[in-house]
Amino acid sequence: MDHRPSLPASAGSGLRRRLEQHAARTARRIAPEAADRLIAEFKARVGSAATAPQPAQGRRRGRALRASAALTVAAVVGGMVTGTQGSFAAAPAAGRVGATSTPGPVTVPQVFPRPQTQTAYGQAVAVPAVVTLVAAPKADPGALAAVREVLTAAGAQRVDESSDAAPSGRPAAGSLTVYVGGLAEGAGGGTDRALRDLASAGGHEAPLSPSGLPDGGYVLAAGRTGSDGAGAVVLAGVDAAGTFNAAQSLRQLVVSGGQGSTLPGVRITDWPTTPVRGTEEGFYGTPWTPAQTLDEIGFLGRTKQNFFLYAPGDDPYRSSRWRDTYPAAQQAQLRALARQAALNHVTLGYGLALGGSVCFTSAKDQQALLDKLDALWGLGVRSFQLQFQDSSFTHWHCDADHARYGTGPAAMARAQSDLVQLVLRRFSSKHPDAAPLSVLPTEYYQDGATPYRTALAQRLDPSVQVAWTGVGVQPTSITGAQTTAAGQAFGHPLVTQDNYPVNDSNPDRLYLGPYLGREPGVATGSAALLVNAMQQPLASRIPLFTAADYAWNPSGYDAASSWQAATRDLAGGRPEAAAALAALAGNSASPAPDGTAAAGTVPDGQQESAYLRPLIADFRLGQGTPAASAALRAAFTTMATAPQVLASADSGVGGEDGPWLAQLAVYGRAGQAAVDMLTEQRSGQGAKAWSAQVSLRRLVARLAQSDVTVGAGVLDPFLKHALAEAASWAGVGGGQIVSSSSMGTAQDHDPAQMVDGDAASYYWSDAPPQVGDTVGIDLGSVQPVASVTVRMGGGDDSVAADDYLHQAVLEYSSGEGGWHRVAVYRDQKVVTATLPSGTTARYLRLRATATQTSAVAVREFSVSAPTSSTATVTGGPVGRPGYPIGNVADGDLNTAYRAVAPPQAGDALTMTLGTARPMDQVLVLTDPDVVSAGWVEVHRVGGAWVRVGALSAGYTDLPVDPRVPVDQVRLVWAGGGEAPVVQQIVPWYADAPTAALQLPQQSVDLEIGGAPTTLTGDLQALGASGASGTVAAVLPKGVKGLTVGVPGPVALPRGGRLTLPLVFRAAAGTAPGTYPVTVVFTAGGQTVTQAVQVHVYPRTDGADLALGATAGSSGDETPDFPASAVNDGLPDTRWSSPAKDDAWVQLELARPATVGEAVLHWQDAYAAQYRIETSADGVTWTTAATVLNGAGGDETVHFDAPDVRYVRMQGVQRATRFGYSLFGIELYAVAGTTSVGTPVSIDPPPSGLPTPPAGGVPSAPATGAPTAPAGPVATAEPTVPADPLSLGEPE
Question: At residue 1029, what are phi and psi to the nearest 5 degrees?
């Protein structure tokens, strides 16, 4: 894909010095508060290559800024879509813009683009019925027109014009005089007097002056000039463009109220940081209409942008037919466009795509090019770009080119430079007032110097500007360092043509997020900054508005407030329309191709649906509190009503962006239904909950039919989670399997999507796996397992299609005794395995055995139990094709039985259960809109059918006597009515567990006297009546100092889930060892338990004992990988053993020590199981710790071994087919022991060998379920275990 660019201006070292000196002189002539910033920005603009950034500091600051941006954007857009936005302008920054005190309190609106300085000053002045307009002799016509428009809209009934002579007397009480024009436009004594009067009336500041400001700069002063209410406004530019820009600021300063309009007391000194700022129409697809392009020019002028590059990909007269003259009608359109551009101080640029067809040496093509440029100049085009992005380094369009230039990158650069020189000599020389000529090179997105770029830099005339798009065609970020490097590589002034928000490569998306990911150095280092718009011109204005704000003042740019202002601007100041646009923009904010992105790859302010995320989290964590439910539902309501609101606002957005607004509205209605469904479920309103669920499922099916993308990675997962909770509430889907990954999560592709039953969704890691990384599931209890299937890759059409574990081993565990290998896999996207008969397991995982460059995506991780009897369904009426009667027992609420005809009286639908069991409730879910009268019966073993109640339309929930087992359930039809539609018949069994309790891991490491460790469990109600009970932790008797904090009483509705924080602590004095702890949930006489092994170890400190030790081994693979490498302090050397399970490596310490910690740094060939052994003499060995589930990488093993002279890593089982390989081993003594190793003088620890952790297991992240309140702390009395520590229970 390629896109088009345009023009700018840079400087060499001599010019840089002159500009810096000029900046210093200029700054002394303007407002004092602007002086330092002007000097700094001139230096940054022309000398950005002189100072290299500090990477570490920049990264830290960047992370803080990204975190701040995410919170701010969520607050800003969230406030707008829930109807809490404020006035048209954003709230002023403290100390910069404040309130005034004239006819009542008046807040100074924030101007956009954000001025270099904007300060509240003096008192506000009312806009009277008659206003005097004093125009400088050569005042800019566009500025005058804008000022008249502003005054009329503010309530002025008449605007009288006057000369700029100095007034002879004081102005009349309550009058308002507006001065338009600066010295360059012939402003005289009246303007100067007004500036002095405003300065004097407001305080002691010197009068403002535009003298010495950069091109396009201006000053604006407003307020009272006396105590009688008379006032003045002065708009004075350093040039006509500056005065025009001042008029655009004035548009935003009027404050309307019940008693008329006022202008606040304010002082503005302002100028653009980037000299050339604007928009490119460079997308592929149908170009904008002439009316749309004219409107765009007006928008550019209003937002102080001064350049428009016409370069649509599908205009043949600028590409394949570039030699031809435009037809008369299109010439007239371009002429009108040029007139509109001139009125708005916008330079009209034109891009000619020559690379695909030009013959460089052809005199005919050369003349055709000159004729084309002359014709365009006659139409009013004043800037030109020659585009060579389609040129080939191996193919010419005529033999003469090959004969003259040869082939290769440098040859193409010479040919292009010669053609550019011809244009400069024979065209540009005749038009000295034209903007600088620019070139879009063949290598416009590469990084750094190349043979082509070097040759181009050497041959191009110094006046020519060179365009680039950043590093990459559509980069998510552009840094100042990259901009500097590009400028150095091209050796010419740089035009940054940013391919955001253009969407032609992903036409299903709108890119409406704010302009982010561009450091200030991009603006200061570019002679021009152009952003490539979408095919949708109105929607494009949201990101284009923010880009204009950034380019004008990058150091003061606030993406969040700019984004908010952009939506208000497009909405014409109408709050409801602004809220609707904010909802569309907030759910179309990510620049990632499919709306999702790995963590950290897009700026946080551009994360999709950022404003909804905290609302969804509050709703889940609070389990649907009234406040959380109301807030989330209000946000969805704004989405649902957005098309109607924007249609009534007549903004034009509805017609242009109808498909996206329609999809947004369906998501809004689905979100409303989901909130209602979950709220009714939690309050026990079954019929209402089921009705909402039916609506939700219909809306979700409708969403899948759309071709556009909205809210990717957020809205669908929320609805999916809601339906999963609904399935659990209905008694289908179980919800007992918990998935996990040792890797991070890319956006919202969380591990739960491995077990959601939807092959279209998938877990996606945020980085490639390292050796030992795993994906896996917890079945909740030890169960028989017959087979395992793991489907990887994100699907054929997904960006994650080829992301899977290329080398892996499948393993299972019961939670005791380590992991058991099933099979090894290589380059298999789908892993299947049949386990030996009688296998039982609780945990299953797929573990990486090698590193790779791609991430990992898992669509489904499923297991099957040994064959057992299942329910069967018979009777009728017969189901329609595709809707068989068996669907009522398939456990899937998305399917249904639909009868072909109404039933006859006495017809029955019978479900025979696989096993007779006691039942306490039966649930029948039918279509709420279909009425088929009947009743429900159950068949008792050895008895007769018993009627338990009548069928209701939609939701039927009936109690059953649990004392006698039931083997059948049937629906008996009364006859007549409609053809029945039944989604599911759900028996709730009395002998089923009340709840499921799951923990993310079965072991906890605790440092004696150290920080507590929180293990976050998951409790889910499984019974028909929910689960209410208590949580307790049972500790071994006699253990002193070990405590476990558990939540208080728990009450869960049916299908409800709760996050259980379990806080483990080992106080000072706790004896080291391994202690079994049982976590117990008791409800209704039933108990659910989970076992946790708590490993208590002493604190360690001091130097690394291994550095002074002597290494030895059972054998080295080769002399290149000796045992001595494990303690040589070098990160790139390693020991490697022969391929034997029982290989070992050991360290002999310089003197005996009490050792408490070993840190092992594994290479890819690591140990799946091993022991840490110690010895006082090297002959008799004691096992200090056993690791049963080695994962490779950096592993820390804790133990307490006194009087140690030797420490050995004794291999038990290799994880790969190779031997064991270690980069290094670190050893640390127990704190407070007197024996230490021989002191060794070394440099700081090498990179790659991290400082050993203080101990403990990091707290598990929130699962999205509500958190139980704090409860009691379990404690026990002392006893000292005799066994050594045993590490390795599955996590």
Answer: -175, -155
| CA–CA dist 874, 896 (Å, integer) | 15
Whether the full predicted model's pTM is greater than 0.70, yes or no, is yes
Round to whole Å and give the CA distance between 805 and 299. Answer: 50
Q: 798: how many CB neighbours lie within 10 A of its CB?
A: 17
Residue 457, token pair as written in the block? 């830099």
Q: 236, 270, 304: which is the final residue of a domain?
A: 270
Encode pLDDT of 523-551 as tens digits. 999 999 999 999 999 999 999 999 999 99
1054 and 910 share one domain:
no
**Domain check: are 257 and 283 in the same one?**
no
Domain count, the chain: 7
Q: Which of 957, 909, 983 is nearest to 727 (CA)?
A: 983
Residues 548 and 609 in one domain: no
| 3-class secondary-structure state, position 926 | strand
Same domain, yes or no: 414 and 528: yes
Statement to judge: residues 769 and 823 lie in one domain? yes
> Is it true that the peptide bond before 1261 is cis, omega within 30 degrees of 0?
no
Strands (E), 1050-1192: 1050-1052, 1057-1066, 1073-1083, 1086-1097, 1100-1101, 1110-1113, 1135-1136, 1144-1162, 1167-1175, 1182-1187
Tokens of 573: 């100041």
Query: Using one digit for the tens of pLDDT, what is the confidence trace for 349-362?
Result: 999 999 989 999 99
Rounded CA separation 727/716 (Å): 16
- In which band, very low, low, confident or very high, does the pLDDT at 622 lie, cut at 50, 70 and 90? low
CATH of residue 1282: 2.60.40.10
Length of the chain: 1291
* Radius of gyration, CA atoms only, the chain: 37
The phi-psi region of residue 1180 (left if phi > 0; otherwise alpha if psi is between -120 and 50; otherwise beta) is beta
Show which residues are catalytic: 390
Q: What is the secondary structure of 546-606 as a DSSP string?
A: HHHHHHH-GGG--HHHHHHHHHHHHTTT-HHHHHHHHHHHHTS---STTS---TTSS-GGG
State the sign of the Cα–Cα–Cα–Cα dihedral 900, 902, 906, 908: positive
In a domain, 555, yes or no: yes
Confidence of residue 165 (pLDDT cuts 50, 70, 90): low
Mean pLDDT, to the nearest integer, of 1098-1116?
A: 95
Helix (H) / strand (E) element for 637: namely helix 626-649
pLDDT tens profile 466-483: 999 999 999 999 999 999
Q: Where are the beta strands (DSSP E) in 88-185?
A: 99-100, 106-107, 117-120, 125-126, 130-135, 158-162, 176-180
In-domain check, residue 29: no
Cα 873 to Cα 713, 861, 890, 961: the distances in Å are 38, 29, 10, 22
User: Is 814 found in the same domain as 757?
Assistant: yes
CATH number of 917's domain: 2.60.120.260
Same domain assignment for residues 348 and 416:
yes
Range(s) of the domain holding residue 694: 575-730
The CATH code of the domain that includes 696 is: 1.20.58.460
Indicate whether 51 belongs to any domain: no
Task: Supply the CATH number for residue 245's domain.
Answer: 3.30.379.10
CB-count exposure of residue 363 (10 Å: 0-12, 13-18, 19+): exposed
Burial 819-855 (b: 16+ CB within 10 A, else e): beebeebeeebebebebeeebebbbbbbbbbeebebb
Q: Is residue 57 part of a domain?
A: no
Question: Residue 835 — φ and ψ, nearest 5°?
Answer: -85, 155
Half-sphere exposure of 432 (CA within 13 A, CB side): 0
| H or E, element range at 789 | strand 787-792
* Residue 277 to residue 536: CA distance in whole angstroms: 20
Final residue of a structural domain among 989, 1014, 1046: 989
Written as one string, the DSSP assignment of 849-899 is -S--SS--EEEEEEEEPSP----EEEESSPBPTT--GGGGGSS-TT--EEB
Tell me: do 376 and 517 sit in the same domain: yes
